[in-house]
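Attaching the record inline, Q. Sequence:
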Amino acid sequence: MMEACNDWDSRRQSRPVMTPLLPQQIAPVDPQQHALTDAYLVERIFALQAYFLELRAKVDAVLAPKMPAAAGKAYPYGRCEEITRELYALLAIRLRQPETPIELLLHDFMAQGGIVRSVWGVLREQYFQNALQFGGLYIDVANDTVDVNKAPVEILPLAASGLVAVRDLAHFRRTAESYWGATIYANHLLPSLAPLLPMVSVSPGRLRSGLQSACDYMIALMCRDNFEQAEVWLLEGPTPPDEEAAVLLANTPADLRPWTDTGRDESILACQRARIAHCAADERWRQARVLDYLRSLRGPAAAS
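Structure, as predicted:
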């Protein structure tokens, strides 16, 4: 699925960054962020909790009526991405014209260079997690989407939250296997998409089988090493079983399928060609592949 990885990065002051952050990557908490967090946020945790609970209630009123059950369980189960994305968009609107004391506080925090961004990663080495980063704070506005008995909002020091960035494909696969109960295969089915989406996940009764991971963070991670780790996985990873391949390809536009019987070789070649053509730095190429991915979900009718 296309996870919510668009950043509304509120930093107002330039700071030297050795390596550009990937979309939704956790930002380092440097001394400035520590100081701003202490000055503006730490002593106002209860006010922040109340504020985000208020926003969460507004988001629930919008999403709950239209969200189908996930894995047979009612909203909010399994809707971490959707809730976080909707709340982040609402927050952006609110903070452009702050009215309440807490909004004015957050606006001032941002104006002084406080980081506010949507982040995504692996939480406590157990599952994928969307959250918000406010300086040195981790704010989970969808804390009840795995265990519905938990409080909807959780605020912790980022360092104590257990949220870490996905390091590589092996880290993603381990998390998907444990969290989704998934089996991960190599994408030998849609070769042109393999440089960005090199994996196929199959998790019966949990998630729809499909390519992984159509998240801006993971796509950027594949581009960062010029598709090297994608190519290695496509070379070494198992091909999806015939029955799973048939299901995944049943409604896929013909132009995205392998041209020969050797989808594995085509997928590897796609990585090599993309590397030679410097596609990792080509935003138009990347966007075209994302559009092809979305077209693959809609089926042949959308191929024209």
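The two ends are 22 Å apart (CA to CA). Confidence is low (pLDDT under 50) at residues 1-17.

More tomorrow.
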